[in-house]
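Reproducibility note. Readers wishing to regenerate the assembly model reported in the main text can use the exact inputs given here. Chain order matters: entities are listed in the order in which they were concatenated for prediction.
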Amino acid sequence: MFNYEIVYMKKRILLSLLAIILSFPAIRAQEYTPTPENLQARKTFQDNKFGIFIHFGVYSMLADGEWIMNNRSINYKEYEKLAGGFCPSKFNAAEWVSAIKASGAKYICITSRHHDGFSMFNTAQSDYNIVKATPFKRDILKELSEECQKQGIALHFYYSLLDWYRDDYPVGNTGRGTGRTLHENWPAYYQFMKNQLTELLTNYGKVGAIWFDGQWDHNSSFDWQLPGIYDLIHKLQPSCLVGNNHHLTPIPGEDIQIFERDLPGENKAGLSGQDVSQLPLETCETMNGMWGYRIVDQNYKSTKELIHYLVKAAGKNANLLMNIGPQPDGKLPEVSVTRLKEMGEWMKVYGETIYGTRAGIVSPHDWGVTTAKDNKLYVHILNLQDNGLFLPITEKVKKATLFKDNSQIKFKQDKNGVVLYLPEVPTDIDYVITLEM
Ligand code: GLC
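Running the prediction on these inputs yields the following structure tokens for the assembly.
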């Protein structure tokens, strides 16, 4: 091939790449200026640091996770019959909220409608909902929103963009085996989502965030018309934060960046290669292995592991949204309630080093992380087989104390940094040293 031919080809490739990039709705999306209320809500969200995720729906009865309809290719007409037997008779909003509050969590995010298309609230947009299609007849989201207001904890709603049940949803990569007769009608489906979101943001008091999921069901050329949805949310409740678990860098209109099963900047689960943005960050993770209830999964993370995850999230400037899948009878699994209680006991003592903090100046290491608030730097030692620790801090340290008993910690500082001389090799869940700067 001649040289000029190569140059020409390169040019053509570049131009087609540019055309592809420009056709991404995300990149074309307009500017977004968050309102003052929204900016304040972002700050409060970051200060809160810890939330509990709830995956609850008719799938909970089949007790094998929230993807069972897709995974077993269950026919939508058969799946629909589950609703007729859905009666979580032991559901008690006050019990849920108290158990969650006891953990020190400051917000709850619950599935309002998951991929299976079943609405967990009394929507006028479809009878396939918890009030109209079940013998239970109660609006769980309503009861929960009232209880959250009463007990002073924020409520967020998960909302699936994709739907394995409705025939107007343009079928994507998943839910292909559910046997729907397809009458794809994007405008109708889009309007349905907008109407449901309007209900959620009108009838359930203050909503802390809408947490979208499922965008990955279509490839990047599909236009979800998200700006229209995001605008609607911000118009209805300016302080409501928009987050989208699309596993991509956030687009205008989003107020938080979500990571699934990985802390920002890590990618062990394979869903988090995206850049870390300047927005408030949140990582969601399961307490056992599944989001929705799974009867055979007793593989719960230990309280220590959960606390470590929360601390590490804080050290990476992120919130932790820890998931629980309630049982078909409406109760939270006993193990999860115990974990919540134990995390709460720890938070009662150490909350000061987590709530309201931001990532500290020393970046995360194998030994642990740092968090910061006002003139204090909290050094969270999670894993150290030594009683000396070097920190590359150039700012002047005035005082070092052991957080749990306020005893003085010896240290030495020179131009390279600070060496802490600990009185013992740390064995606590989190051995916290407070540095006054
Ligand atoms: C994934 C799963 C979905 C779950 C979500 C929670 O997107 O597909 O079922 O709700 O993660 O992060």
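We highlight two features of this model. The CA atoms of residues 387 and 425 lie 5 Å apart. Confidence is low (pLDDT under 50) at residues 4-8, 18-23, 25-29.
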